[in-house]
Amino acid sequence: MKILYKVFSTPEELANGFAEEFISLIKTTGKKKKFVSIAISGGNTPKLFLSVLAEKYSGSIDWKVVKLFWVDERCVPPDNSESNYGMTEKILLSKINIPPEQIFRMRGEDDPSQEAERYSDLIRKHITHKNNSPVFDIIILGMGEDGHTASIFPGSEKLFSATKNCAVTIHPSTGQKRITVTGKVINNSRSVFFLVTGSNKSRIVYEIYRNSEDSRLFPSAHVKLCNGRITWFLDDESGKFIV
Length: 243
Ligand code: 6PG
Known about the structure:
Blueprint: E1 2-8, H1 11-32, E2 36-40, H2 44-57, E3 66-70, E4 72-74, H3 84-91, E5 103-104, H4 112-126, E6 129-130, E7 133-134, E8 138-141, E9 166-170, E10 177-181, H5 183-187, E11 191-196, H6 202-210, E12 229-235
Parallel strand pairs: 1-12, 2-3, 2-8, 3-5, 8-11, 11-12
Antiparallel strand pairs: 4-10, 6-7, 9-10
Helix pairs in contact: 1-2
């Protein structure tokens, strides 16, 4: 497993820097296979990236080769302001020509357990497998102030040894139900990109960077790819202890 850390002066610089790498990776992957499988997260940092992608780079990607999935979803309808799909649709999907049949949203409005099963099956059907595990080409993650990633929160690290593709979790402070891919899916992917900004996350970034004993308290530290590469895209604030 290879881990890279890239630090940018501002969140906007980070978003642009990642957009260029994202486009390049889709192009190279698209030359080797019919579809590029991508799973994206919600949250403000991924949202900024999606905005930059839509406004400046949407014409640079052949969206016909992209199969788009979500890393997690809040258990709300798609028109709810909390919906990760709703956010993505408004910011990006409404502005690009990705074939609708290649957009695989988690149905936050449905029964969480049933949807976790349905989405697990969807991943099984559409994603190339290796060693009986789905291998996404690209997974985009954020990291919360508590070190969570996807919707795997502190105390749920067991989801990194799950046998299922998806699970239902509960946000520890809001009690909101979430559907999330498990660590099995994340750790089998080819490329994981963490998009993390803000000084409030700098200490956790540093603990993970040092691979300290304390880092194990944070789910993001459990992202350890079997055969892939992790790249952390940080800004000067979140990366201030590692530059
Ligand atoms: C979600 C995300 C979650 C998010 C992080 C970072 O549905 O909220 O999947 O994992 O990416 O909490 O969010 P911020 O970038 O807003 O801090």
